[in-house]
Q: What sequence folds into this?
């Protein structure tokens, strides 16, 4: 363990192997802070000697919170604060304003920002979608049996507004979820998939409007899939991550190039602790146990136990991530000849 805390004033030291496993008992009074439920940029202030990580709490970044609660970061010599926010736009905004050093974000947001600014480095792949983890749901009374029925739904398909990218042009999928769903729909609708419309709103509102008839279809993630099924008898119409999008990387952890360059030791420690947590998340049980503890009370014990979970990679492959940039290019979210170099963007051992 390193005696000095890691943050903006971190002293560069000899790197330790990122694959190292260090299990250390830490007392409950350890100086690790969690800023839970913070939903505005003004609440995310820099803490001296501490690396601040900003995230939207959910299944995607469950291992991050696991690493915090189980003291993996501190065991690796890293003092960590997690600022929990409510939308992806807040996440990268915190990096830009130096209110956080590391961000957990979806790849739609990450790659759109990287194409525009070119200053992000990828520390780790966070979550790859599993079958049934993102579904377009409907109620039996609306008679939508498959994707073909989505062409005529009134008021469009509900879409989680916290995933929407405001910088995209008209006619382009609003988010990575919408792009993935449209990619799958093209197998049924061909070019007709591009004519589908979306209605961004909070997922709680999606469920309510699905129940009262204002929406006939809604794209949902967990635990809202569980809520729609148990409260109103909703059924899946289309799995957004199936067919050509099956197992697609959904989210990762990024930092600015300047912070990575100046803090290789903190990068190494973060990667080692997260890798340990993601390896543990691959086992049955740990993710379901941490979900009810996430800030905001999103999951109950029951919804956590029944939630559909994807995979948490312990390695990051530019070739695998290229599936995302290619799909985003095909859906006009990125230029077909994107300037993003995934191999250069990826940080290996604090490089």
A:
């Amino acid at each position: 363990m390193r005696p000095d805390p890691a943050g903006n004033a971190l002293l560069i030291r000899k790197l330790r192997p990122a694959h190292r496993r260090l299990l250390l008992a830490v007392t409950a009074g350890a100086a690790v802070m969690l800023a839970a439920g913070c939903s505005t940029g003004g609440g995310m202030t820099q803490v001296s000697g501490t690396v601040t990580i900003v995230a939207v709490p959910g299944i995607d970044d469950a291992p991050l919170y696991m690493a915090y609660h189980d003291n993996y970061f501190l065991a690796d010599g890293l003092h960590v604060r997690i600022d929990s926010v409510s939308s992806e736009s807040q996440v990268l905004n915190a990096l830009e304003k130096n209110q956080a050093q590391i961000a957990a974000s979806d790849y739609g947001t990450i790659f759109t920002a990287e194409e525009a600014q070119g200053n992000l480095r990828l520390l780790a792949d966070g979550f790859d979608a599993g079958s049934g983890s993102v579904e377009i749901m409907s109620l039996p009374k609306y008679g939508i049996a498959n994707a073909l029925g989505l062409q005529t739904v009134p008021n469009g398909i509900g879409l989680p507004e916290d995933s929407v990218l405001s910088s995209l042009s008209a006619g382009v999928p609003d988010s990575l979820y919408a792009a993935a769903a449209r990619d799958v729909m093209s197998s049924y609708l061909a070019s007709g998939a591009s004519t589908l419309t979306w209605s961004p709103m909070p997922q709680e509102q999606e469920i309510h409007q699905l129940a009262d008839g204002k929406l006939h279809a809604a794209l949902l993630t967990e635990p809202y899939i569980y809520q729609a099924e148990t409260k109103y008898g909703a059924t899946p119409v289309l799995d957004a991550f199936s067919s050509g999008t099956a197992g697609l990387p959904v989210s990762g952890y990024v930092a600015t190039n300047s912070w990575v360059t100046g803090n290789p030791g903190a990068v190494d420690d973060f990667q080692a602790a997260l890798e340990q947590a993601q390896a543990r998340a691959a086992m049955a049980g740990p993710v379901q146990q941490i979900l009810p503890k996430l800030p905001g009370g999103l999951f109950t014990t029951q919804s956590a136990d029944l939630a559909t979970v994807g995979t948490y990679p312990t390695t990051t492959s530019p070739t695998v991530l290229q599936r995302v940039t290619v799909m985003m290019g095909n859906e006009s979210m990125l230029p077909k000849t994107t300037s993003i170099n995934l191999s250069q963007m990826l940080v290996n051992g604090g490089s």
Q: What stands out?
A: Residues 11 and 114 are 27 Å apart (CA to CA). The longest strand covers residues 120-128.
